[in-house]
Amino acid sequence: MTEPLVRLADGTVKQVSPLTGTTVWTVPGRGARPLTVPDRERRPVVGGGADRLCVFCWDRMAETTPEKSRLVVDAGGAVRTVHDVPASRLGAEVPELRSFGNLFEIVSQRYWRTNHGTVTPARVHQRARDYVSEPAGRAQVEALLAARAGAAGGEPASPGSPRWWQDVEDLFDGSHDVVVARRHLVDGARFTDELAGPGTLDVTEHRRFIAFTVAGLRRVYRDQPAARYVAVFQNWLRAAGASQDHLHKQLVAIDEDGPQLARELVLARSDPALYQHAVLDLAVRHHLVVARNEHAVVVAGIGHRYPSLEVYSTAPAQLPWEHTPAQVDAFADLLHAVHAATGPQVPSNEEWHHRPPGADQPMPWRAVIKWRVSTLAGFEGGTRINVNTIDPWQVADRVVQRLVELRAAGLVAPMAIGDQCEDLVLRYGQEAAR
Ligand SMILES: [Zn+2]
Questions:
Q1: CB 177 within 8 A of CB 220
Q2: 210 and 80, same structural domain?
Q3: What's the 234 CA to ligand 1 centre distance in angstroms?
Q4: Residue 266 falls within a domain, yes or no?
């Protein structure tokens, strides 16, 4: 195998991803540019309008599909998850997080029903009937069905018909969920471009965001037995594919591994310590370790189309929900630190990876954060060589420098940064392989 990361004599950096085989070149002289800031419309926030800016905002809860769960933090700091809130109670308290089905699913409930024989559970059947028995719930559901049918150029089924009831139940039962955080803008924002991003949450809020998402991930698997895998991702800003500027994650069940995961499963079959050898040891060798804490590590990624950072759980557990709360918090803290160092003006994707529960090759829980600061062009399309403006060392340097400042200011959780990181071992069910 050729070295995945080399710097040529003229300064050009050539990378090949050890996991995907993606080829990336970074040409010298472009990396010091500031990360692209998207052009945003800057409008003043008018009184009370900060929670009405988009359909995910808290003053517009009836514009999402019916809520599946919410996280409520009581005045004393106690945290509880509330499921299946009726329409009449949506505004009864101010949740910190909400989850609900995506109105425009990537993989629809009809797909699962038709191709896998998925049946609506009795619990969902009853939940749908209870919900529409309230006038507010009925109005919400009818508006959603009209919006969805309209977007497809059709008409909703006639209310009360068997097809209508099926459509209604699907609003409560999908396998493509959205998890939304409370704020659209940071507290005290005066302009609509002062967005609340993943890194502007405080450490505790961000831990709850990740733990709530992990619980949602487990629920999607539970509710969709035909799911082979559930993809979890966060698109931040429109340049990264987000439909709303409001912080949210998505969880999408799929019925196959997809080519990337399939490739990794083959690699992991022949090397149970694949991620240690191909990723972490490589990062250590090239001084690309950015930070670590007790249960996680973050490195600058090699061979990504976009400048990327990779957060790995170092815990013995593999599936996200098998991690202890302290291990989930540690993972969350490094994700948060990366986002805080990146800043809310930079479009990004956060993509989670975990072992498909039905696979027996060991895989660690990890997340990749990609800075969407460049656009693929004809050169890439014609050559399959991606030109990336910032090489992994520059990514690591930028984030390390910023993290030192953020840590000193108490804006990220305690962690070792850069050269302080030692003893880097991924423990995911593969002790025997080392
Ligand atoms: Zn919003």
A1: yes
A2: yes
A3: 15
A4: no
Indicate the number of domains in the chain: 2
Give the domain range for residue 67: 49-251
* CA 197 to ligand 1 centroid distance, Å: 12
Tell me how far the alpha carbon of residue 392 lies from the centroid of ligand 1, in angstroms: 34
Q: In Å, what is the CA distance from 283 to each residue of 15, 271, 318? A: 13, 18, 21
pTM strictly above 0.90: yes
299-316: per-residue pLDDT in tens? Answer: 999 999 999 999 999 999
**221 shares its domain with 280:** no
CATH number, domain with residue 310 = 3.30.428.10
So what's the pLDDT on residue 433? Answer: 43
CA 316 / ligand 1 centre spacing (Å): 38
Ligand 1 centre from 244 Cα, in Å?
7
259 within some domain: no
Q: How far apart are CA 374 and CA 237, in angstroms?
A: 14
Distance 246 CA to ligand 1 centre (A): 5
Å from CA of 196 to ligand 1 middle: 10
Q: Which stretches of 239-324 are DSSP H helices? A: 258-270, 274-275, 281-285
Q: 288 with 217, same domain?
A: no
